[in-house]
Amino acid sequence: MKSIVFKIKMITPTFMGGGNGRLDMIRTSGIKGMMRWWFRALAGGVVGDDLNKLKDLEGGIFGAAERKSNSSKSKFRIVLENLNLKFLQGQFDSSGFTYLGIGNVIFKYDGESRKFIPNPDKSNSAGNTLIDAESTFDVKIFFYPQVNEDDINLIAGSFYLATALGGFGLRARKCFGSWQIETCDGLDLRFNPTVYTEEGIKENINRLREIIKSKSNNRIPASQYPILDDSQFILSVIRTNEVNYQELLDKFGKLYRGFRVCAENPQPGLPGRGIHTSDFLRQASSAQNCKKVVFSNYKVRNALFGLNIVYPQLGNKSLQLEHIKDKKNNDKEVLRRASPVWFSVKEINGKLNLHITLFKSQFKPDGSSVKFDGRVVEIEDYSLIEQKFIPYIKQELEDKNG
Description:
The structure is a single chain. The protein is of the alpha+beta class. It has helices at 28-47, 51-62, 96-100, 149-165, 198-213, 245-261, 383-397; strands at 2-10, 76-84, 107-110, 115-118, 136-143, 179-185, 233-239, 299-300, 309-311, 317-326, 331-335, 341-348, 351-359, 368-372, 375-376, 378-379. Strands 9, 10, 11, 14 and 15 form a five-stranded antiparallel β-sheet that branches. Strands 2-5-1-6 form a four-stranded antiparallel β-sheet, with helices on one face. A three-stranded antiparallel β-sheet has the order 7-13-12, with helices on both faces. The protein is globular. Mean pLDDT is 87; it is low at 282-288.
């Protein structure tokens, strides 16, 4: 049986939970889930909005069990070996680092110490919650006999993309669960799985895309879901001078928070209490030069970082995505909209890079609207992220001498 071994180094802390919501170490099911997501993003740039074709391609590699008559088995199996895991301990002041992992998810506020701690509600029997950076392990992928060379490259490529552009576990879109392939042994691939420069990642995407093209006659990129097509996604690799992930995430978290408070004049900032954004309100401390909004002509910014959002300072009113299931009966449902922006951290030559990936797919499904407190609101388009947010983060974090 053919196999390939990726030696992995964790760059930022990782939480992968089991059925009880507590740390379950590194889960191969979670790895395969992220590989599926990035495979769809890759294939969607070729097969377009033909979801049946996408399902056929995905099922042919990852397996599908929709119907017994049309079921298929996965063409590979993942095994973890040589685990050398460290765990994040200690107490932390409120910072950009804890902000990115807050919300009773990664960290929890301890009223007695007035510090943030790894969330004990998610710890395992040993009292550990987060697998820390510098942990290492091997991901060994076994390929079943029916697999061909194209399949091997797409399977390995899906794992690579998850490491290059995304992350694993909770808060993977917000820098947590960033992993990096250190070495690759076992088989020759058509792409380089250990390169994480912006140019190298794009070259690898192009090589993997060519394999998909050989399996599909369609050449129209999808628009309804995130895809890795030049017209639908933007990758920005920001080279920093940081060597410590906590210091990088502290700086980035404050910048991220500050932009969400006031895009016109962003200042590094942290939430005072609870989790909130500042659409529809003014905070004198961190939103100077941000005028009070006029509801009738204001375009909501924070929707672009994901929905739904609850505003504690406004009586827990929410900004949510509402979809009409049945117009005749006015049957509605509230949908969740994951952030179209992924943040990931990589290490190049001893320095940390921040990767920002923006997917510019259709934000609102047909028949849906964004509402605040029951009223329809307009939202900013992706140019806010592309032309303001990314340049702002780059200007503040990029190593000017790099």
